[in-house]
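Blackboard transcription, Thursday session:
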Amino acid sequence: MVNEESNNRKNRRWLLIVSLLLVAGSLLTLVFTSFNDALVYFFTPTEIQAQSKDLEGRKIRIGGMVQEGSLTKVEGTQKIRFLITDGDSLVPVRYDGMLPDLFREGQGVVAEGVWRGGQDFPASQILAKHSEDYLPVEMTEEGISKAKSSILKSLK
Amino acid sequence: MWIETGHFAAILALVLALTQTTAPLAGALLGKPAWIRVGRHAAIAAFLLLTLSTASLVISFMTHDFSVRYVAGHASLNLPVFYLATAMWGGHEGSLLLWTWLLSTFTAVSAWRHWKSHPISMPWILVILGAVLVGFLMLVLFLSSPFERLFPVPMDGRDLNPLLQDPGMVFHPPFLYLGYVGFAVPYAFSMAALITGKAGEEWILATRRWSLFAWGMLTTGIILGAYWAYYELGWGGYWAWDPVENASFMPWLTATAFLHSVMVQERLKMFKIWNLFLIVATFALSLLGTFLVRSGVLSSVHAFANDPGRGVYILGFMSVMLLFSFGLLAFRSEKLKGSISMKGMVNRESAFLFNNLFLVVGMITVLLGTLYPLAVETLSDAKVTVGAPYYNKVFIPIMLGLLLLMGIGPRLAWRRMSSDRLRRALVGPLVGGVVGLVAAFGLEVNHPYGVATLGLIAFALFSHISEIGMALKARRKRFDQESGPVSAWRLVTRNKRRYGGFLVHLGVVLMAAGFIGSGLFQEERNVVLKVGDRTSIGQWQLTFDSLGKVSRQNWVADQGTFIASRAGGAPVVLTPQKRIYERHAQPMTEAAIHAIWQEDLYIVLGDSVGEGWSVRIYRNPLVSWVWWGAAVMGFGVMVAMGQGRRLRRRKG
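(Written on the board underneath:)
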């Protein structure tokens, strides 16, 4: 009688532990499977040129400066096209939608979208820097200075 | 002149904080009560000095003293008085001073309030809070001083970032900090309990109100930030899983777990080590939040300071804190092993266990998503971001699991429950769940998560209602001469903690509805409109009526006037703007929002495109439920805080 009671209790404890592990396991599985899909890597235009094939069909972010003089708009729509530069290479970008306040030529920009080699990068989202003192951290000092000098060149 | 006074006061406060750390330590070790008293006086004096220090910075702002570098960087002659008075925490240096001042305030209050009631722990509480205060004061004084002068003195300041010139942003940081810093007190109590070897239930009872207060403030701070993001950033949402938002969400998750699991310790003397772990984690994550936001390692709106020195310092500070806390915990863990073990699945402590599991997995999810990009960048030089889909995928199931537990937990008995009583307890909630599912079909909710949420919301609601109903019935049986309302009033006021908690749950239910409504059913429209054009979204008909210019003290704006009406109802006017602030080149969008209980109509004015303007319109269902839910939660916390120690005495 007493034995049965304690056995019963032990069983129930096992049930608790097993169900805890099951819940934790399935949640963590969910975490790790969703995680890999949600990673979006960041590239500069030069890096893109180097590995255009490998990136085919992947969601990526491209960062650099908006090349001065490259911005064209389709009149009467929100469609735009511009070039992102890091000073060495250029990537043409297409976008249809409202632009962030801080988007303009000669400023830092990050475009997100799915890479299709050999054509304009169709951006689904454009991020510009958020305050005047702030540059996207993804941009290295070197990239910024190169991009700036390229902008200066394009002004000449 | 003022700023030097403040600077000097802060240096003196550092000396006093050092005294507060060392004197009670020596006093406790050598058995000299007088030395412990020295620590108490030092704590109170440091608070007064830091108050002076903070006031001096505010005065420098009010008097436009641009010879102070920090004032010149964050204010201008034209800044409205309200923002001038609050610009003190508009930047890195000042907000750290605010953190420090709040910490010294809480230290002084606990030295004053708990002096008589906790004579054994008190020296250690003073030592630990003193050490944290020293750490932050050194950061303020040596690495990010707001007291520096600027030469030559500029004629005018660089102004406050226009994004921060908003009431939501003014109150967001102080609330958040009240939460972060508030957890320092329970943390100090828990460490004191470990050191003195009296890690029973005393520290939990003593800090119940502190934890509730800190949790309430943190919740308010997070929601204020979300609200600000919603109407100020103009992207139609309120939560982007931005690293900085995550930084404040992580301590919230562990703190919520803590608030629930301490009840198990109070009642059954179980989960002792776990509770200590949770409070250490909460305070550590509060420090991590400060570190992430204030060191500039994250690419985000908030990262206005880019100084690796500060980052390294706070990282070092955190490591010391974690090593000390977990070291102590490991060292003492033998003593803390309880004699009682878990007993089966279906009881309240198991419900709390599962609640903690969900919340901690949530915290790990956020931690992983926030720190992984930093780790990748440090180790491999590649840059990566973790998108919102990851968080949404994980957090919707977590939210549903928590809603389910919220419906079951309060109806379960501690320890053990007969299957008969269990069946009776779950009838009400299950009926509710069915009602919810039927409602979901009636409303033509076509998303599985939407249906599940509605069912679980109704499940949790009915569970709480029948729980209150049963308690009321039992009371009326015992005191049959009481009238109904009197009974209900007494029921709630005799156990404010329980019914305050129920109110918080009600807030959670409202918020869950808001999250799902706005998250899954948002409609968005991107159009180019000329004046006079019409468009529609959902049941709304909109006309772009006119375009004009408006101006205020420090900005001018293009303002569009839209006339909207829903399903033929009375017309409303919305005026989205594109503002240009003085001294700032970039324009700022100001969204126009019309909120009704079912949904928000949200209009953003873009750039001029040829003859028209680019306009973005959102229909955000149930967004205001998030804000109202938060208000109910806040009210619930206040009710629960009303419960004093009486609870303990009544239990004997």
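Lecturer's comment: Chain B touches chain A through 59 residues (CB under 8 Å).
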